[in-house]
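hi!! sorry for the late reply, been swamped w classes. u asked for the two structures so here they r. pasted raw, havent cleaned anything up. first the sequence of the first protein and right below it the tokens
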Amino acid sequence: MIKISNLDKYYSKGKENEIHVINRVNLALPDTGLVSFLGPSGCGKTTLLNVIGGLDKGDSGVIEYDGLRLEKYKPKLIDSFRNENISYVFQNYLLLPDLTVYENLRLALEIIGVMDKDEVDKRITYTLTAVGMYKYRKKFARALSGGQQQRVAIARALLKNSKIILADEPTGNLDKKNSVEVMNILKKVSEKTLVLLVTHNKELAEFYSDKILLLKDGEVLNEREGSLDTLANFSDNTIYLEDLNKAEDIVSGLNLKLYSDTNSEASIRIIRKNDRLFIDSDLEIQLINNNVKILENREKEISKENIRDFDYDTSWYSKPLTKEKESFFKIFKYDFLNLFRSKRKAKVFNFLFILIGALFAITTIILANAISQEINFTGLKDKYRVEFNYNDANDVRDKLTRAYDLGYIDEFSNFEEARIRVINNKTFLESSEFRGSYDLMPSSYIHKSELLLGKLPGITNALITKGIASSMLDNLGLSDYDALIGRELEIDEGKRLTISGITNNDGMAIYVNPISGIFNNTNKYEVYNSTYNYFYKDDLSYELLEGRDIGDGTFEAVAFSNTNFKVGDIVPVSAYYGDASDFSKYDVKIVGIAKPLKYADYERGLIISDKKLIRGLIRTNVGDYAPSSLASYEIISGRDVENVDECLVPDNSMLEDEASFGKYKIVGTYRAKRSDFFDSAIISEKAYNYDLPNSFSEKINTSYEYLGFSVNNLEALRELLVGYNIDTIYNLQAKNLKSQKMDGIIVNLSIALGLLAVSTIYVYFIMRSKLISSIYPTAVLRSIGASKGFIYRRFLIELLVITLFTNLLGFLGVHLIYFGIVSAVESLLGSSFFVTNIGLFFAGILAIFLVNFSVGILPIHRYLKDTPYEATSKYDI
């Protein structure tokens, strides 16, 4: 029994156009029988039926179904009850037009969990036979007439063990004959179940109903039983003459008989002309055709006894149903096949999904290259730097000087930074490249004992650390360190040196000779008022074109072929440094002409003997300081430095007869054992370290200064320099490079997120469009009892199929093309210019599924928030 208490429902509640569509209704409905709702249009019949059947919700009141009490609309509970206990017959049939009759009924059984093939076939066969539609089981629903579709809809409602059948105007679109057939079936079924009928046909209601509820303005005015025991005149296309009043008259030339079901008068004019009749009347005139039968007898009436004889077995209603879930693979296969037989609009959707997958692939590739970009950590782990702003330079200088006096720091070292590039050319098409940014330091900081391979750098050479060498091998596709010796190293995009050796240390630094021209204190000679580079014989690889090579300790030189010198020329040469104006002039004889084997940048110049300079044959200016602990020299005259105010000068310098150099007292002369000290004043290590802070602030022109020092007491230094960041050169450089890398990642991540946002919006609107395009079948499923879970499951499986065979197809397609290009480039050039990240590859696949299932489900989720009636009304179904 259904019991309804104080049920209310409003449309536009609280507004001017408020309608109280169900007004405090109280009802007690039986377990079986046919109950009809009668009343004028707009009185609330259909709304009341929908609320009772769970298709819509009331605003207040209580509905009880055999102990199930509902004070509020609870979708999950209502869905479960509808699925098991309620069937529906609608005026507009709500069949799926693109399915056959059999498929429509099978779908209704799948909704209630009947999956057994034999059971499904038995139920469908019997039910279709009972309603006279079995022979049409293979026809598409769209090919049936209105009466045939309604009988199929009734058959669908009879398939499950329903306690309640709701029939909303089931005969509204049918003729009288089909209406009687439909009502006969519903009446027979009502012997075992409750049939609730909404109809405008008072005659049918009075004859078939066990109870009639008369409604007006949302209220139930009264309840009564049906008043007719027989039903006649139910045929639209058969005229029974004996049921009509007969009048006969003989008119000249015309035998006229009138049959009428009324005594009211009608105006008729009959004109006979040319053996044709012309009829004019105030009534509608319809010609008799083949569809209309005229019988001389009386129409038989239908009695309630005749209905009881209607053959429809309901014994299986008492059998419990064995419920199963619809097969995942069955739905998957159906949706997969639908991809290929879909309509043009659906194919456009699928193509857009493939493009979305391609966007996801591009996103992961961009991120992989950004995140996987290598970081080469530069700098030394035993040297420290201070990070400060330009305005704080004086404060930092003073505090560093104080730290030095207190013994917190020592061994100041000025470093520069250089960007380098090495190219490994194998063939015309095959090459690889290495780039990096590293500390550039004087070769005096490296002793021969620290060499792992090769030799110390000369003017045209550079020494690299093992840390840089290892990175080079990986990037250039080389197998061992030997392969790096002799390779060209481009520094700061233009200056080229040869790798002469590798140090046995894991730092990331490059060591060059101070007079190589890489630092800003290059020594040069003036020849005929033109500036030429000079080169030491031992530091350059060259080939004699004519003449001979130079000897040791002579005033001889070899000129490059493009200097316009010839063998035998006497060249006046003067030495200078910086802005010096007092030159010492010498005559040098050209004994040979040569060409360099490398480094065309240095072709304009002279080759002289290293020993020639060391032995004082050419005098030099003193232009720099060097600490005694790092310089390699021998005392020529006087003694070595002992105090902070003393210095040594080169034995071939212009200061050898002077008593002092700057603030330092000259106590002797020296001869350099390594050419990079030939023009330096040797001072004590303490003086060297103490002096450098005085030039500290003068060198500052950026927010990051390349000045390194050793730390003896890091904790005390940090207390002194509170507010400033102090760390090793290695860590600071690493932080800088990581920051640069992070900037790149952020840019690429922004692009990736932008693509992801576009993809997400695409997915949402495409799935929304797809839902709208399939809103009718979805609404049908919802209306005939499918639960939200059933709809979600089907929709998610469809989404899975779409994702696998569109999104994922586009994603994998782009990645396969990308992997193919990378593989081809690596095979051709022997080096990797792009990176692949398996983690991001799978993350991209995961993102596709997450976006599709989290965003793609939103349209159906929003749709299922409405009641079935609200959803069908919203989309005008």
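now the second protein. again sequence first, tokens right under
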Amino acid sequence: MNETLTTIQQIDGVGLDVSINTIWLLVAAFMVMFMQPGFAMVEAGFTRQKNAANILMKNLMDFVIGSITFWLIGYSFMYGEGNAFFGDFSKFAFDPGTDTYGAGYSDYADLMFQTVFAATAATIVSGAMAERTKFSAYLVFSLVITLVIYPVSGHWTWGGGWLSSLGTDATVLDAAGEPVSWGFIDFAGSTIVHSVGAWVGLAGAIILGPRIGKYVKGQARAIPGHNIALGALGVFILWFGWFGFNPGSELAATGGSASAIAKVALTTNLSAAGGAIAAMLVAWMRYKRPTLSLSLNGALAGLVAITAGCAAVSPLGALLIGLIAGTVLVFSVEIIDQKLKIDDPVGAISVHGVAGAIGTLLVGVFALGSEVTLADGTTQLVGAGLIYGGGMKQLGLQAAGVFSIGAWAFVCGFILFKVLKATNGLRVSKRIEEEGLDIYEHGETVYNM
């Protein structure tokens, strides 16, 4: 084995570390891709059976359309050279021909990993707009979010855009004479991925209006999903997939990264557990019953919330973030449903939007930070949260990222859905909604009895 690896390195310039990193990145990408059926099961289970085929079709098309459009243009907008706000076309229809392994892993593996993230952002919207959206309109939306909305906001941080260095002071130099980098922290996408999908979904839900029968004389009426077991299965699949989503975002598995991905897996798991138990206990106290649906969404809220700071906080900090997210989730679902009267059939806005924002902000409270040696030989604590001596700086940077990306996603979604409503039409007719989208939109049903 060692002789083979040595030969490969001599011929192709690829070492064992690059091979391991590439394989890890691909395995993580495959795990994140498996989250697509998780999202599909959650959405299908939490909604009515007459719309199940429509929901499965939307989730399928999110991945199909996202795979093509992100490869063609989205990846370039996100990671092309460009400027502080969006990338150029240098990675258009990305195919480097000769793999450079410049970042320590295959360029193709990076594209694959980023593609499954783009598909995740798109599919979050489906739940918030479920059971009343025209399939043709949804296809247009799915294309636009993976083509423009998600890549542009992703470029602001992961593509080296303005948020990635927002707190950098050019006069503070490290030992190498370079400015100490200090910016918005969102390690794996609480805001960049999850909140983007949720805020676009919020815009869509507002423009669509509630499902028929959801509000009677101004009072919210529960519309139960048809199969909570499917929803539970979906949550377990998503929980599993998150071990690719967060640890995979380390983008390496060799050297110090081996310990880093193990820690990220631990913080991810603890936050999910904290979210589930907090949601269960709050629901139990508030509604006199430990409801399964809120407990499941509590686990997802914990997963979403820790995604920003999974590499920056301690295990205890991760558990606290999960507990906070699960608690907030219960009240968020109630406020959105009963006070704001926004019909979100699966709780996507609360799970991905509110919990994503809360988790991202809490990085500014619980981040451990790191000591950086400066040019004058002294050290400075960089990226630390409020309780670890970082003051308000990191919290302010987190707030800037949450509100700027949220505003971008919501405004783009609002404009897009307004245009679709005025042209193609956004909502199905009353008859189709009442009898089910499966037969009228797709000519088939999931259940044939």
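hope this helps!! also noticed smth abt the second:
The chain has 15 helices and four strands.
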